[in-house]
Design a protein that fits this description.
- By secondary structure, the chain is an alpha/beta fold.
- The chain is 33% helix and 24% strand.
- It contains eleven helices and 13 strands.
- The strands form four sheets. A five-stranded mixed beta sheet has the order 1-7-6-4-5, with helices on both faces. Strands 8-13-12-11 form a four-stranded mixed beta sheet, sandwiched between helices.
- A hairpin with a 3-residue loop joins strand 12 and strand 13.
- The structure holds acetyl coenzyme *A.
- The site of acetyl coenzyme *A has 23 residues, from helix 2, helix 6 and helix 8.
């Protein structure tokens, strides 16, 4: 026996502080024109000094729980997708559990880069489908501003902080997650890496001096991977569900670069009106992008019961992840 599983509540949180392209012009050798033309980004949010990833996650989770009419004690599993946990351990999911009062929910952090939230949707929904759990919280939360090299113009213009959360539960038959495509190509790991701070290169004065605790990225290699994998994952989930792109009401792509999104739109032959884009306002918030997009789309009245929605992402690993949902609320 399997159960239909889907999103029953969503919420998001963005830190108050904005960092505009004009602000960045004063920090590194860049320009508003270059950033807008090459990435589509105009603004990003930056966490306050006292805010860590679990604080952002908490704000988003409280809203998602209210939306799902679910009490924290009902949660049986909490997954936090993040590349910027508060600590190496305990997990950010455990910190969140304690703050929410989710008592005995199982907790773990999920490291799949920007694909993390969609990976979490996959794992969380399968644990409901199998009957193991009934209520699962999946959060994508990042404070990338803490691991950005603010002297490197190649990367510092791209990233922002934020969090989004979804409560998963049983839904009507035929609704919820219809199909998934989760994958990775570990041979591309070197293209997007935080080289120091783990067991390979533990923290030393030398690693700090070399800025090796920050994001290192071969932008063009990641771009090529994304351009190939995002449309492929969309086609795969559609094919698995026996649907076509014309059946899709909303495409929610990872927000890394507007040119990557436009490339995917062209390859998929989907109109821009059916694609949620917020990269101009928030930049790349890694695992937080998809749930923040979903919350904005819901608030704008763009998610109606029965709508077919694709969430698709790529990220560090290199990973990719697609999920096709029939919106259940
Ligand atoms: N301002 C001005 N000039 C810049 C900037 C900047 N902020 N950044 C780079 N440049 C310069 C470069 O130095 C280079 O100059 P040169 O020709 O004199 O050497 C020139 O602009 C072109 O650089 P490219 O790297 O070729 O620029 P490109 O068009 O490839 O854009 C970018 C770079 C935006 C990084 C793009 O490759 C990209 O978006 N890649 C994908 C990134 C991505 O998706 N990351 C995902 C992260 S996912 C996660 O898990 C965190």
């Amino acid at each position: 026996m399997t159960y239909a599983a889907g999103i029953i509540g969503i919420g998001s949180y963005l830190p108050e502080k904005n960092l505009t392209n004009q602000d960045l012009e004063k920090m590194v050798d860049t320009s508003d024109a270059w950033i807008v033309e090459r990435t589509g980004i105009r603004n990003r949010h930056i966490a306050a000094p006292e805010q860590a990833t679990s604080d952002l996650a908490y704000e988003a989770a409280v809203k998602a729980l209210a939306d799902a009419d679910t009490k924290p004690e009902e949660l049986e599993l909490i997954i936090v997708a993040t590349e910027t946990p508060d600590y190496k351990y305990p997990s950010t999911a455990c910190l969140l559990q304690a703050r929410l009062g989710a008592k005995e929910a199982a907790c773990f952090d999920l490291s799949a880069g920007c694909s993390g939230f969609v990976y979490g949707l996959g794992i969380g929904s399968q644990s409901i489908a199998s009957g193991l759990y009934q209520k699962v919280l999946v959060v994508g939360a990042e404070t990338l501003s803490r691991i950005v090299d603010w002297t490197d113009r190649n990367t510092c213009v791209l990233f922002g902080d934020g969090a989004g959360a979804a409560v998963l539960g049983r839904v009507e038959e035929g609704y919820g997650i219809l199909s998934l495509d989760l994958g990775a190509d570990g041979t591309g790991g070197k293209h997007l890496i935080q080289p120091a701070g783990g067991s390979r290169n533990p923290a030393t004065h030398a690693t700090v001096d070399a800025h090796d605790h920050t994001i290192h990225m071969d932008g063009q290699d990641v771009f090529k991977f994304a351009a190939r994998k995002m449309p492929a994952a969309c086609k795969k989930v559609l094919q698995k569900a026996g649907l076509s792109i014309d059946d899709v009401a909303l495409l929610v792509p990872h927000q890394a670069n507007l040119r990557i999104i436009e490339n995917a739109m062209a390859r998929l032959k989907i109109d821009r009106e059916k694609v949620w884009i917020n990269i101009d306002r928030h930049g790349n918030m890694s695992a937080a992008c998809i749930p923040v997009c979903l919350t904005e789309a819901r608030d704008a009245g763009r998610l109606k019961k029965g709508d077919n929605v694709i969430a698709v992402a790529f990220g560090a690993g290199l990973t990719w992840a697609g999920a096709l949902l029939k919106w259940a609320k």
